[in-house]
Amino acid sequence: MNISTLKPSPTQVWQIAQSHFRTLRADTPFQPRIDAAAKTNEWYNWSGYRAPHSLWDEELEYFAIRSQAALFDISPMTKYRIEGPEAEAFCNRLTLRDVTRLKPGRVHYTAWCDDQGFVLDDGTLFRLSPDRFRLCCQGRHLPWLLDSAIGFTVRIGEETEQVAGLALQGPTSFAVLRDAGFAGIERLKPFDLADFAHESGAVTISRTGFTGDLGYELFVERELALPLWDRLMVAGQLHGIRPIGYAALDRARIEAGLIVANADFTAAQQAVRADRQRLPYEIGLGFMVDADKGHFNGRRAILDARAGKKLRYVLVGLEIEGNIPAEHAIVYHKKNREVGLVSAAIWAPTAKKSVAIASLRRPFGDLILDDLWVEIYAMRELRYERVMKRARIVPRPFIRLERRSATPPADF
């Protein structure tokens, strides 16, 4: 056999690579506008979609969030439609929070667990009407949702491809929406949602976001996506609107002390090792657990662990001396005992501090709070040098912006 005949030609290699690229990453409804804005050509795979890491300048994109209005495509976020006469009962059984308190036209941040109480994912639950919900999250959970729905009169379907999403964040975001003609947008309080006329249909706008800043999220049918983008860009010309990529959003969310599944904690179904799974109280989501609402997935295991003081970890915010980001640094007690790991860290431009989110093994971070250090490997003159920096546990978020909750928002 002639081995050379088995080797693909350069043309075949290119065709295979192109086919693989197209197969791996789909386009969102906003892709034509994003591609037109892309200067850096830095892309990553978000749930099978081609998403921008940055579009023009990562650092300036961050400052667009904090000083102007930033537009980010959230269409790849997984979206589920949950509807039917027992939709409320199903969501209440599935998630940690009491869904009976979630009124139509409201959103809440929630999470759901497996039967052992380990967190499967976190996300936002939108109550669109008395018997219709939208659940947004990072992972895909349709089999789990369908299995959990056995016995309930409810319909569940994924609508990720059918519903396009945008996040509009920053101090001038309200002014952009007002000037775009969304009358009454000033009445939305944090975690409110409402439908507004758009083209031949409607856009659902919620006062939510992932930046710790004034901001909104907009959801629209796929065929109306590009007109929505154009409408916002035209209205935002005098308000500094800028499209951004994920890197800038990630900076803002860390500064706001917000966590991401499979970054700051491992989702239960993704964990290879049992000690990687986390209970809600171990990742700062204990405030969601409503023990008075009746049964929900993982209830007994979660409450038993809390009552028996069997919680193994605690998620903390750290303020670190110096200005070197402590990305993926190991946390030590008294410089010699390894007690945890940093999952996210930045030099926070607004807070003007080096901050981090870290998971520590109890009692560190719970009962033992002092004499903590992080081990950082810093690049200096083309060499990595090991430096130990003192770390102090501080509350999250690392910044609090009054404009985030002001109603009506200020007209910047």
CATH superfamily of the largest domain: Probable tRNA modification gtpase trme, domain 1
Rg calculated over all Cα atoms: 23 Å
H/E element sequence: HHEEHEEHEEEHEEHEEEHEHHEEEEEE
Mean pLDDT: 94
The CATH class designation of the largest domain is Alpha Beta
Tally of contiguous helical segments: 9
Question: Could you please describe the fold and organization of this structure?
Answer:
This protein has 412 residues and is an alpha+beta fold. It has three domains: 9-77 and 162-255, 2-Layer Sandwich (Gyrase A, domain 2), CATH 3.30.1360.120; 78-158, Aminomethyltransferase beta-barrel domains (Alpha-Beta Plaits), CATH 3.30.70; 275-394, Elongation Factor Tu (Ef-tu), domain 3 (Beta Barrel). Helix content is 20%, strand content 33%. It is built from nine helices and 19 strands. It has helices at residues 10-24, 31-37, 58-67, 87-94, 142-148, 173-179, 225-235, 246-255, 299-307, and strands at residues 42-46, 49-54, 69-73, 78-83, 106-113, 119-129, 132-137, 155-158, 163-169, 193-198, 201-206, 215-221, 241-243, 313-320, 330-333, 337-348, 353-361, 372-380, 383-394. The strands form four sheets. It has a six-stranded mixed beta sheet with strand order 10-11-12-9-3-13. Strands 14-17-16-15-18-19 form a six-stranded antiparallel β-barrel. The chain has a five-stranded antiparallel beta sheet with strand order 5-6-7-4-8, covered by helices on one side. Strand 18 (372-380) and strand 19 form a beta hairpin. Helix 3 (58-67) packs across helix 8 (246-255). It is globular and about 65 Å long. Residues 1-7 have low confidence and may be disordered. Pfam families: GCV_T, GCV_T_C. Residues 315-398 form the Aminomethyltransferase C-terminal domain. This is Glycine cleavage system protein T.
